Amino acid sequence: MKRKGQSMKIRAVCRGEATTLPGKTAKTGIFKHAVQGPVIVDAEGIVSDAVCNRKHHGGPDQAIYAMGSVDLDFWSDTLGLSIEPGFFGENLVLEDVDSAKLHVGDRFLAKEVVLEVTAARIPCATLSARIGEPDFAPRFRKAGHPGFYCRVLKGGMLMAGEDVVFEPYQGTKLPIPVILQRFRPMQLTEDERAAYLDTPLASRFRAMLEV
């Protein structure tokens, strides 16, 4: 992982359209592909990117789903495939980033756009269907390379090849793997719950702790 103030490149910016998985009727935006040239990013994410299940995806706290090149390399080796950007439904791929080493509140500062990490990506049946493995979701969770959601603190134009500066969060450290593997009230101590609620955690995930 880069240190504070060091920069990395955006490997890819990805966008998708609403499509239907084989054997399904509900549409999904999980099929994304890298786009050339700049895109517009606002508080809801990449303009014109498909988000079909608003109950679990999208919204200001989960506006952008990103993965690091380390995550994609891991999955390429694990699955024996050449994983292309957008394969898991991510909007961004950042060079030299490992989502397992990120924390809620970490920020990525591009020329115009500022993103803040809010949560881990939790696998679902749609991801399993997209991969073609009914039991892929628990495998994805256990592996610990889930990618991460971001809110948009500052919108603007964004494009592949752009430099991004990493700014680590200075408050309570809530690691992405903790959200992925332990984020249920019964698996956290009261002190952990209180501390994690003090971070800029995504609202859907805060609700899991406010019980």
UniProtKB/TrEMBL annotation:
Q: Where are the transmembrane segments?
A: none
Q: Which InterPro entries match?
A: Benzoxazolinone_Detox_Enz, MoCF_Sase_C, Pyrv_Knase-like_insert_dom_sf
> Which Gene3D superfamilies does this UniProt record tie to the protein?
PK beta-barrel domain-like (2.40.33.20)
GO MF terms listed in the record are: catalytic activity; molybdenum ion binding; pyridoxal phosphate binding
Limits of the MOSC domain: 33-167
Give the source's domain of life in one word. Answer: Bacteria
Protein's recorded name: MOSC domain-containing protein
Species the sequence originates in: Rhizobium oryzihabitans
